[in-house]
Amino acid sequence: MAKFNQFVSDLSTTGKGVACTYDDNTEREVFVEEFSRLWPEWNVCLNPKKHPCDLSAYDSQNNIKAFIELDRAGQDWQKIYWNYLSILERKEENMLMYNREAPVLMVWINQSMSKYCILNLREVNILDYPLQKIPYKKNRNKTIFEHPFDFHRRIPLEFGTLRTTGE
After folding, report:
1. Which residues fall within 8 angstroms of residue 39, CB to CB, at 6 or more apart?
2. Which helix (H) or strand (E) holds 7?
3. How many whole angstroms separate alpha carbon 137 and alpha carbon 145?
4. Cβ-count burial of 65 within 10 angstroms (0-12 exposed, 13-18 middle, 19+ buried)?
5. In the structure, what pLDDT confidence band is assigned to residue 150 with cuts at 50, 70 and 90?
6. Which listed CATH number (3.40.50.11440, 3.40.50.410, 3.10.450.50, 3.40.1350.10) goes with 6-164?
7. Lowest model confidence (mean pLDDT) among 34-43, 85-94, 97-106, 144-153
8. What is the pTM of this model?
9. Which of 6-10, 62-66, 85-89 is the least confident region?
10. Largest Cα–Cα distance in the chain?
11. For the chain, which residues make up each domain, given as ranges?
């Protein structure tokens, strides 16, 4: 788990109506329903808060079929205008470990939860892409702060699947 940083916490909660980075109950509930509809043969369920992924999916014999990690944006994009999907360095070790057991599905969601993009980590070797400093800058108290410590890997958007909720 990453060390708490107020700046990163502010970035992660802005526009989502939540008080902390771990308050993703709304996304979890919406996407249990969404993925249960999308994959009716699976039982999609919430993971405990301490689990590295938000959701899991099981078949009728209770065999794990997928781990699902949700990441909701603070803005309501309707069309992805960037050319990559970002995997945070601080998440990659757990995601790669769980990916050996079952596919890890990374899900990027817009603010209104009407659009999302799924990346199956078994379809790309994320380690083929270099770690990069996150270039995000934000004005805070009339000072520009650069992202203080996070790094990410930029995976080409072509590996993801863009969907509309309820489609």
Report:
1. 57, 65
2. helix 6-13
3. 6
4. middle
5. confident
6. 3.40.1350.10
7. 144-153
8. 0.80
9. 6-10
10. 56
11. 6-164
